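Incident log, support desk, overnight shift.

02:14 A customer reports that sequence design results differ from what the structure should imply. Their input is reproduced verbatim below. On-call engineer (initials T.W.) acknowledged and began investigating.
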C-alpha cells in the first residue's frame, strides 16, 4: 500500500470525526434554540393536558438527549485528539497508521453512539404519536432524527471509501 493511499485514508478519517463533531455541536445549538420557539407555540396551541405532556418531553430532552449529545461531543474530541496524536507519532510508519485507523474504529464508535441518540429521539417522538398537536409541536425532533440517520449513512459511505483505499 502506498503512502498516497494511507494519506487518503487518514484524511477521510479526519473528516469523518470533524464532520460528526460539527453536526452534533450544531444539533445541540438548534435544540436549545428550539426550546424558546417551540415553547411559545406549545403554550399558544396546546391544552393544559397536552402542555403537561409536552413539558415532560422537554424534561426528557434536557435530561437525556442534550446530556448524551454533550457526552458524544466530548467523546469525539477525545477520539480526535487520540487520532491526531497517533498520526503525528506514527507518521513515518504507513503500515502502523493503517493498523491504528482500524484499531480506533471511529465509524463503529461514532455510529453506535448516534444509534443511541436516534433511540432517544424515537422515544421522545412516541409521545406525539397519538395527539396531532403534540405530533406537530415535536416536528423539529423528527427532523433531528432524520439528520442522525443521514449522518450514520454518510459515515458508512466515508468508511467504505476509506476501506477501498487501504484494503
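02:41 Re-run completed on a clean worker. Output:
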Amino acid at each position: 500500500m502506498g503512502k498516497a493511499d494511507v494519506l487518503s485514508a487518514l484524511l477521510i478519517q479526519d473528516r469523518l470525526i470533524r464532520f460528526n463533531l460539527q453536526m452534533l455541536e450544531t444539533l445541540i445549538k438548534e435544540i436549545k434554540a428550539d426550546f424558546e420557539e417551540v415553547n411559545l407555540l406549545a403554550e399558544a396551541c396546546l391544552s393544559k393536558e397536552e402542555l403537561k405532556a409536552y413539558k415532560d418531553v422537554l424534561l426528557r430532552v434536557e435530561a437525556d438527549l442534550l446530556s448524551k449529545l454533550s457526552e458524544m461531543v466530548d467523546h469525539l474530541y477525545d477520539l480526535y485528539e487520540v487520532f491526531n496524536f497517533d498520526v503525528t507519532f506514527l507518521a513515518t510508519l504507513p503500515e502502523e497508521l493503517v493498523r491504528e485507523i482500524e484499531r480506533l474504529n471511529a465509524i463503529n464508535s461514532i455510529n453506535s453512539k448516534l444509534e443511541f441518540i436516534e433511540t432517544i429521539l424515537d422515544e421522545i417522538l412516541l409521545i406525539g404519536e397519538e395527539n396531532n398537536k403534540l405530533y406537530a409541536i415535536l416536528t423539529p425532533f423528527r427532523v433531528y432524527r432524520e439528520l442522525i440517520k443521514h449522518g450514520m449513512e454518510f459515515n458508512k459511505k466515508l468508511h467504505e471509501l476509506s476501506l477501498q483505499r487501504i484494503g
